[in-house]
Design a protein that fits this description.
heterodimer; A: 456 residues; alpha/beta; seven-stranded mixed sheet; four-stranded antiparallel sheet; B: 490 residues; globular
């Protein structure tokens, strides 16, 4: 019998157990599978590898990828290379957390429940909202769930989504809306922000919600103060998708009257991981508390008056309400919510502000250096940690040139916006040093001059 | 274990302490008000904790001690497949070339990651017997909804708009009907028969030209294999509906029966269950979806393809349902699942299922004399006991579950499936030894004796945990969902 380190069964165990059951062989236990559908033999898949051989193979595979440790990354567009306090990984590596299931037995899950209660508090604090849930899959699906909540709450069937919301999030909103037969209409842009005059024309008595992103996909800070009354006068809910790291320095959406604030906590200590798992969050006003999708942790007491935490308001959820649930979400991103909590705790009250300020300062520096080189910045309003720069016909070629110099270039906006062909979205986080920014500007400047010369 | 409260991290705050290390700002400072305007500059700090790094580590270490995971002890939580989470998975997922890569990098710089995804898809195709697989869904429920959206798109592409109903058995997971609702369908319930299997007569009664799909878990949530699966497939296909496989219980049938061979059109898998991506205290998971050839055009986009020049994402998918998630799924969990599959190989995966089923049947036989066994036949990877005998003596299944905590066990899933009175759903998994099973069985037998001789000890359990049973009604009636800093007057 082949031995395997995860399988403690010995041949003696097997014999004893079969005897207790009263069967001759393991095969007998599968006699209820009809002959016609029985799979014979073994899967045609790669053979097992030893621990050392497999780690060697997979390390080589990982080595084929260019990571943001070896390369200075200027790529953002919704996923960022930020400071990840080393302590984060030490906390989430405690297997009492990562090998546990959903905390349905509160007496032996107080650790997880309290950690999530703290996460809910931190997200509520940063966003300026009354309450937050225990997490969603990611920012995109959280935004889509916000749309469904709004449609249910207002009994209206139209979502207006700003064109400056992340293109992939908009795609996800559309897919969810399709299932619910909700119309999704895009609000056009003006100078890289939501066109407020256009929105005024578009919003009407069928509008369930207006969705904007703050800071938006181009890093521009939307004018929530001007947007809010337009949305609420129409009786719609105001949904803001927000990078929570920016809220260390920016006025939180809650202060501007957002009804729902969603986003992704990836910037807080969660690796880019090729797009996931990240950590969606979902925060609302008190009024919408009972409409929130997903799990909520609440405080209570035991019979001796000790404080404890439980999953609560479960009547909203699929395992109780089945087809009447507010959402079908079950698994969420608990471990990443824990990671984000540790990062938010490490940064703390002052660090959260300092890191946000550094992002603004570094991006401002990048912008000035690019301008000095005569490069054209597409949108010049207030921004957080991203800017749009015109680089000429081929963003792909520029990225290849940057890559040769050890840098990962920005996002090719032409892939998502026809009118922005030849524009690159650049992210400058606190991770990028002045030297790296200068080197980046140098390559981009040389590249643009060269292309211009060859086209002259 | 000490029973003192662990303070909230906010209650440990002391002004002036920090737990971070940011680089000195090496570019000129900016005046935020000047740059952004007064309105946009945050006036008050967010009330995050102010603690040192040791404070943080002690806090979370204390919390971890108040939490039970698979590494802490046996966790026979039915339908959740709480098997061992291999440590190699955790190491590999943290390789910088997997953890620190951006989803929008040029494809030429992430070929290794794309190769892993592609090979995982190939492995899952073989394991499920399906023609194509997407890794985009983030979890099981997300996969269910994705699959149903594809079925909807398929019917609509055929000009068939009258298929508004999805059929689910009364024993189905709650996510099945919830996902059907989110995908815009109405749910119809089909009854189980006296053997715990789908009642074929009732199925024939509820199907029709309005049937979009039947969602099934096989083996079902009672741990019983739906023997009439081919007939069910034929009933559904005859009326033009599609058959959906909820892969939550795949651990029971690997190398024994493939969903594709049973007639299923769409399958979702829970990589965090069968394939050891850890549960993480509730997530993140990963819920890939496999489909038969006729549904391939509707897969979420992009799909990953292999060309002569390497791997690439194909966005040109006019019939696709669209995106279900930004980027390409929970890659980090997919790395773990891939590592597991490559660790086990074909012979290993076969043994996984055989031992999972052997363990479950062994436990069931040994416990059967002490509890009611509503469906007395070979189970697959899990089985369901009923506590109705104990209920007559005034002890509920909930009490017995709480008593198990005193023995250091996580209790089984209780009160599910809904068609068993006082149900206890037990899933041991293949990674547990006979000694562990025997110890747990002994504890269960002792509890059944206590119910007869000393019911109070069970009714008042647990006795050894950091906290007693909590007042859940109070939590729901006046919800406190966050910490509020006391005002100065308090």
């Amino acid at each position: 019998m082949m031995k395997h380190r995860y399988l403690p069964m010995t041949s003696q165990d097997e014999k004893d157990m079969l005897e207790t059951i009263g069967v001759q062989s393991i095969d007998e236990l599968f006699s209820d599978i009809p002959e016609k559908v029985r799979f014979k033999g073994e899967y045609d898949i790669k053979p097992a590898k030893s621990e050392s051989a497999l780690t060697k193979e997979l390390a080589q595979l990982a080595g084929k990828n260019a990571d943001s440790v070896r390369y200075a990354s200027f790529l953002g567009a919704g996923v960022y290379d930020h400071y990840k306090p080393i302590i984060v990984d030490h906390v989430i590596s405690r297997s009492e957390f990562y090998t546990a299931y959903t905390p349905y037995q509160p007496e032996i899950s107080q650790g997880e429940l309290q950690a999530i209660f703290e996460f809910q508090t931190m997200i509520a604090e940063l966003t300026g909202m009354d309450i937050a849930n225990s997490s969603m899959y990611d920012g995109g699906t959280a935004l889509a769930e916000a749309g469904m909540l709004a449609a249910g709450q207002t009994r209206r069937k139209k979502i207006l989504v700003s064109g400056a919301v992340h293109p992939e999030s908009r795609d996800v909103v559309r897919t969810y809306a399709l299932g619910q037969s909700i119309d999704v209409v895009e609000v056009p842009l003006k100078d890289g922000r939501t066109d407020i005059d256009a929105l005024k024309e578009m919003v009407d008595e069928n509008t369930a919600t207006v969705m904007v992103q703050y800071p938006n996909f181009f890093g521009q800070v939307e004018n929530l103060k001007e947007l809010e009354p337009i949305v609420h006068e129409a009786g719609a809910l105001f949904t803001v998708s927000s990078n929570p790291l920016s809220l260390g320095a920016l006025t939180p959406p809650g202060k501007f009257g957002a009804d729902i604030t969603v986003g992704d906590a990836q910037p807080f200590g969660i690796p880019e991981a090729f797009g996931g798992p990240h950590c969606g969050y979902f925060a609302v006003t008190q009024k919408l508390m009972r409409k929130v999708p997903g799990r909520l942790v609440g405080e209570t007491t035991d019979d001796e008056g000790r404080r404890g935490f439980v999953l609560t308001l479960q009547a909203r959820e699929q395992h109780i309400r089945r087809d009447k649930a507010t959402s079908n979400i079950c698994s969420n991103q608990a471990l990443n919510a824990l990671a984000a909590s540790v990062a938010m705790t490490a940064l703390g009250k002052e660090g959260a502000k300092e890191i946000a300020m550094q992002n603004i300062a570094k991006t401002q520096y990048m912008k000035q250096q690019l301008k000095k080189s005569g490069l054209e910045i597409a949108f010049d309003g207030a921004h957080f940690n991203e800017i749009t720069v015109k680089v000429g016909p081929s963003v792909k070629e520029l990225n290849a040139a940057l890559f040769e110099k050890g840098m990962i270039g920005g996002y090719d906006l032409g892939l998502s916006y026809d009118e922005l062909q030849g524009h690159m979205l650049i992210a400058v986080t606190e991770q990028r040093s002045k030297e790296e920014i200068d080197a980046f500007v140098q390559v981009i400047d040389a590249f643009v001059r060269e292309t211009e010369a060859s086209h002259a | 274990m000490h029973k003192d409260n662990q303070p909230l991290i906010f209650e440990m705050t002391k002004q002036g302490r920090v737990g971070y290390s940011l680089p000195e700002l090496d570019v000129p400072e900016v005046d935020l008000t000047e740059l952004l305007g007064q309105d946009l500059v945050r006036e008050e700090f967010a009330e995050l904790p102010e603690v040192s790094e040791l404070d943080i580590m002690r806090h979370y270490t204390a919390l971890s001690k108040r939490n039970h995971g698979v590494d802490s002890g046996f966790y026979p939580l039915g339908s959740c497949t709480m098997k061992y989470n291999p440590k190699i998975n955790e190491s590999v997922a943290r390789y910088s070339g997997f953890a620190n890569i951006h989803p929008l990098q040029e494809e030429s710089t992430v070929q290794g990651a794309m190769e892993l995804m592609y090979d995982l898809q190939e492995h899952l195709k073989e394991i499920t017997g399906m023609d194509e697989v997407t890794l985009q869904p983030a979890a099981g429920a997300h996969g269910e909804w994705t699959g149903l959206m594809m079925i909807r798109a398929f019917h609509e592409a055929n000009g068939d708009f009258k298929r508004t109903k999805v059929i689910v058995p009364d024993s189905a997971h709650g996510t099945n009907p919830a996902s059907a609702t989110v995908a815009g369908f109405e749910t119809v319930t089909v009854k189980s028969n006296e053997h715990g299997l789908v009642d074929l007569e009732d199925l024939k009664r509820v199907v029709g030209d309005d049937t979009a799909a039947l969602m099934l878990t096989n083996p079902n949530t009672l741990g019983l294999f739906e023997e009439d699966i081919l007939e069910m497939a034929s009933i559904i296909h005859k009326v033009g509906g599609k058959l959906y496989y909820d892969g939550a219980n795949l651990n029971a049938v690997m190398s024994k029966a493939r969903p594709g061979d049973m007639g299923f059109d769409v399958v979702h898998l829970n990589l965090h269950k069968t394939f050891t991506g850890p549960h993480g205290g509730g997530g993140p998971g990963s819920g890939p979806v496999g489909v038969q050839a006729d549904l391939i055009p509707y897969l979420p986009k992009p799909i990953l393809i292999k060309t002569d020049e390497g791997f690439t994402f194909d966005y040109n998918r006019p019939e696709s349902i669209g995106r279900v998630k930004p980027f390409y799924g929970n890659f980090g969990i997919n790395v773990r699942a891939y590592t597991y599959i490559r660790t086990m190989g074909p012979d290993g995966l076969k043994k996984v299922t055989e031992y999972a089923v052997l363990n479950a049947n062994y436990m069931m036989r040994r416990l059967a004399p002490h509890f009611d066994l509503p469906y007395d036949r070979h189970c697959k990877h899990e089985f369901v006991l009923s506590g109705r005998r104990q209920k007559k003596l005034g002890v509920r299944t909930l009490d017995m579950a709480k008593r198990l905590l005193d023995f250091g066990y996580h209790p089984p899933t209780i009160y599910f499936p809904l068609n068993v009175e006082e149900g206890m759903m037990i899933e041991p998994t293949e990674t547990e030894s006979k000694e562990t099973l025997d110890d747990f069985i002994d504890a269960m037998i002792q509890i059944s004796r206590e119910v007869e001789e000393n019911p109070e000890i069970v009714q008042n359990a647990p006795h050894t945990t950091v906290i007693n049973r909590l007042d859940e009604t109070k939590a729901a009636r006046k919800p406190v969902l966050r910490y509020q800093k006391p005002t100065d007057s308090e």
